[in-house]
Amino acid sequence: MMCAILAAGEGKRMRPLSYTKPKVMLPIANKPILEWNLINAIEAGFKEFIFITGYKGEMVKEYFGDGSKWGVAIEYLNQGEPLGTAHAISLLKNFADDFVVMCGDTIFGKDDIKRVRDCENSIGIFEVENAKEYGVVEMEGKRIIKIHEKMEEPFSNVINAGIYHFNEKIFEFIEKTGKSPRGEYEITDSINFMAKKEEIKGIMLKEWRDVVYPWDLLEANKEILEKIDGKIEGDIEKNVTMNGKVIVGEGSRIMSGSYIEGPVIIGRNCKIGPNCYIRPYTSIGNNCHIGNASEVKNSIIMDGSNVPHQNYVGDSIIGSNCNLGAGTKIANLR
Fold first, then answer.
1. Could you tell me if 154 and 256 lie in one domain?
2. Which of 87, 148, 289, 309 is catalytic?
């Protein structure tokens, strides 16, 4: 069976971070969002993938290549003009007749992916606190009756989670789907057509993390870092203190006087210290510098960025190739 991952969107609500890379390539715990879904889908048993790309799709293809790095096969379809999820899935018509498709910017657990894979004609559902921003699922028992998009007064907190198991029948319902009020062909409209004639089952997911806004990256980063195991591949000088689970990448140097409280991940070829403080739930990308008298807390520092001296970065996201001047302080009230 093949797994398709929707990775065509820009992610406008992630701006300015998505000005330079597609949303699915934004890092969480030093891996793109899309890579976490790839890893979990592989662990769920998939070996063949199609990534449906669009906005800055060349970055996705350059990073993942043919999938051999992960021991799988990856092919690509370019959606071109972003005409909606139904249009994107319609591109699979000549490539798959039994497949799982998932949104690339939502992180799904491996066990949930497997449960959807094992149940034909099914969609993943999830219970949230506030369903106003999502498609609310109307059900009879385990059967999907209808998906109601973004209701002002939701009658339920059970939503469409964005992962589906379809067979070839979905394509005939996509062909009947017209444009939605926002001018796109929505897969939820296709599902509503299908639900009138075919039984579609709802699979309640146990792990689900939607990543919509920049602060969602921090929450997802925290959840993933809590599950990591420590690993030291770089050089640790004397008088460095590390507590908890810490990953230090190859070629990185942790200099004297640095204090690191895990869970923390530090990428490759970084210079950390001397005399800096890195607090829990911090991800530091490759080729970064955290310098003297600097403190970083619960933040994501992307590749090639420098927090060089007398800086404070708290509850924040620093994009790629940024350089903070001496004494710069960045924090968000949480």
1. no
2. 309
